[in-house]
Design a protein that fits this description.
Length: 448
């Protein structure tokens, strides 16, 4: 009975094989152990380890050699041979395949005669649930002992356990749909693409007044000071800004002296006309000169009165930094500021040409202010521009003006606030909604 028990050295050797397999930290390390460590027990010419990926087999290791990276004739033939060998194996137990008894195809038989010995001992490696993970092919000159397969059964199971653990760690399991599921998903996606949705677009916007009056420079001059601050509420008659009066006062003083001189010459000519008939002819010319000087003085005096600009009505002064205007030369009619009515807010939208959609007056608008992102404002488009112009940011855009509906929302719509407006167009299919921009870009690029 003691003769049937394995030799103690054999047990130690099998334990060493298991320990090396459990110590492997990668699949390549495990394959190297499988191909090289059993040599003392099998005494094979060569051992090959393959990983099975469906119908494809990957060569992981060749005993005594590094993994070849070039497609040599032997490796090309080896891929065909291992697929044929895998089809000959049945079950989980190792099998002996002799060249004479196996009857391989002619192309496999020719390569076998050239590169392999008389027989192969094929050891399939399975995971615990029964799926085959790979193959160990040992090239032997003669069939191994019948007791070898039961002896190595525990080691082969350890290889399968470690192989399965390393594969799961390196590449986690992924769910793969069946053809039926894929077809169903495509059909559902096609149906979803036909669902009608509301066409929308986003654009920058700000709160302006629908009733704003432009205050421009009444004469040519230089801005001396701004009497109001930006966004300051003013009443009718409040001084807004004033122009420099230095040159106009100098002209008034010069013209006043010229008027005095002309009046003196006219009076002297009138006195001489009593005694000298020729002086009567000069009266007409001198009288015209005096009237001209008075008209010039009146015009300059009127301009001097217009150097101070007052608010024609109540509102909010809308302009930029006052320091940008002080000392700046202006011409007649140049815009200085706006006088806006804060009780009539509106939404000014700059819709970029690339984002433009078909919009008509009355289309819905939702404004999300940066200051109040959780309290959107709602309105409708009042007017749209048919010509796109470059904005202050250098973006060519259409100008749209929308209303602010609701009295409660108007209290929140403070002039000058910025945000993002969402514009609602017509209903289109989901496919058109998603592909509108890519199609427009493709047509612009291709010219189709």
């Amino acid at each position: 009975m003691n003769e049937a028990l394995p030799h103690p050295q054999l047990l130690l050797y099998l334990d060493a094989l298991r320990d090396r397999a459990l110590a492997a930290d990668s699949l390549n390390t495990l394959a190297f152990s499988i191909a090289n460590d059993p040599y003392s027990l099998l005494n094979y010419r060569q051992a090959l380890v393959f990983a099975e990926h469906g119908k494809r087999f990957e060569l992981l290791c060749i005993s005594g050699l590094a993994k070849p990276t070039e497609d040599s004739p032997y490796l090309v033939w080896l891929q065909r041979a291992v697929r044929w060998l895998a089809s000959q194996l049945e079950g989980r137990e190792p099998q002996w395949l002799a060249r004479d008894a196996a009857e391989p195809p002619p192309d496999i038989a020719d390569g076998w005669s050239e590169w392999w010995p008389a027989g192969l001992w094929c050891v399939p490696i399975h995971e615990p649930n029964g799926k085959r993970l790979g193959l160990l092919l040992t090239l032997l000159d003669e069939r191994p002992a019948e007791t070898l397969a039961p002896t190595l059964r525990g080691v082969v199971q350890t290889w399968g356990y470690c192989w399965n653990a390393l594969v799961r760690q390196r590449r986690p399991l992924r769910w793969r749909p069946t053809r039926r599921q894929s077809a169903g998903a495509l059909a559902a996606a096609a149906i979803l693409l036909l669902i009608p949705v509301r066409q929308t677009v986003l654009a920058p916007a700000e709160i302006v007044s629908s009733d704003a009056r432009i205050i421009s420079s009444p004469i040519d001059g230089v801005v001396e000071r701004m009497a109001v601050r930006p966004n300051q509420a003013v009443k009718a008659g409040t001084l807004l800004f004033s122009l420099d009066e230095t040159s106009l006062r100098s002209r008034v003083e010069v013209l006043s002296r010229q008027v005095a001189v002309a009046d003196a010459e006219l009076m002297a000519a009138s006195q001489r006309a009593f005694d000298n008939p020729q002086s009567k002819n000069e009266l007409t010319v001198l009288n015209g000169t005096a009237e001209q000087r008075r008209a010039e003085l009146a015009a300059v005096t009127a301009q001097l009165k217009r150097t101070q600009v007052f608010a024609p009505e109540a509102g909010v002064a809308v302009f930029g930094d006052p320091n940008d205007w002080i000392g700046k030369p202006v011409v007649t009619g140049e815009r200085i500021l706006q006088l806006a009515d804060p009780n009539k807010p509106a939404i000014l939208i700059q819709l970029a040409v690339a984002d433009a959609i078909a919009l008509e007056p009355g289309a819905e608008v939702t404004l999300y202010l940066t200051a109040y992102p959780l309290a959107p404002l709602h309105g409708r488009i009042l007017e749209t521009s048919y010509q796109a112009k470059a904005s202050e940011d250098g973006i060519v855009a259409y100008r749209l003006l929308a209303s602010v509906d609701g009295d409660g929302q108007r209290d929140q719509a403070r002039l000058g606030l910025h945000g993002t407006a969402k514009l609602y167009g017509k209903r289109v299919t989901l496919a058109y909604f998603l592909l509108r921009r890519p199609l427009a870009t493709f047509r612009a690029w291709s010219g189709l």
